[in-house]
Amino acid sequence: MADTTKTLENMKANILSAHKSTTLAEKVDFYNSWAENYDQDVALLEYRAPSLAANCVSSHFSGDRGAAVVLDVACGTGLVAKQMKKLGFGHFVGIDGSEAMLDSARESGLYQDLKQCMLGEGALHVQCGSFDVVVIVGALSIGHVPVGVVRELCKCTKPGGYVCMTTRINQDNAEYKEALERELKQMEADGLWTCVEVSEVEDWVRAVSEHEDGYIHGVVYLYKRLQL
Ligand SMILES: C[S@@+](CC[C@H](N)C(=O)[O-])C[C@H]1O[C@@H](n2cnc3c(N)ncnc32)[C@H](O)[C@@H]1O
């Protein structure tokens, strides 16, 4: 127990630097240097977002999971695909800005295709309307992926397909979350998609900031792209 606490303490400064609003290049450098220890560190933090998002998609998806093609945006080392695979999904395409995170995802053997792509810097290099499910977990937050990218995610999704997104509920992410929810609702008003589920979860991940105790809360959003 003492060892776990010490390790968590050692990790805090590192993790907190990921939440800062830095340039995209600095963000990618940060993830390049974290890639090797990412899975073990987030396990220690009891990071539940990948399994919560996978379960949310699974509880609404009624198509053929084996045939469905999933776009895992900001895929990192592949934790979301790992959870979705357990639930029967079989085809994954991953995109991320960090080459080192992509290398780990490649090693997982879960993805048919992996591409390096900076989100928020132009179009996504994937085909419009071609994915049954698009997921973005742990990346829609302050200093990571700009809110405007959610329109691109919707465009990548097949009519009738699902877009699953997550964000953190804590002080430093409050403004971002508000802007995100404004955009999600505006897109619904624009007739692009319909909201299927919004679930707030209390024990999302262990808090690392000195202003927070226990667990940070988080939220999973699931939207269904409307027929054109
Ligand atoms: C917290 S990790 C989440 C990874 C994975 N989805 C998970 O839940 O374990 C955030 C990922 O987003 C990527 N990322 C952050 N901002 C990005 C951006 N603007 N463009 C591309 N990738 C970005 C990072 O490289 C990193 O792999």
UniProtKB/TrEMBL annotation:
This is Methyltransferase type 11 domain-containing protein. CDD domains: AdoMet_MTases. GO terms for molecular function: S-adenosylmethionine-dependent methyltransferase activity. PANTHER family: METHYLTRANSFERASE, METHYLTRANSFERASE-LIKE PROTEIN 27. InterPro entries: Methyltransf_11, SAM-dependent_MTases_sf. SUPFAM superfamilies: S-adenosyl-L-methionine-dependent methyltransferases. Residues 71-164 form the Methyltransferase type domain. It comes from Pogonophryne albipinna. Pfam families: Methyltransf_11 (PF08241). Transmembrane segments: none annotated.
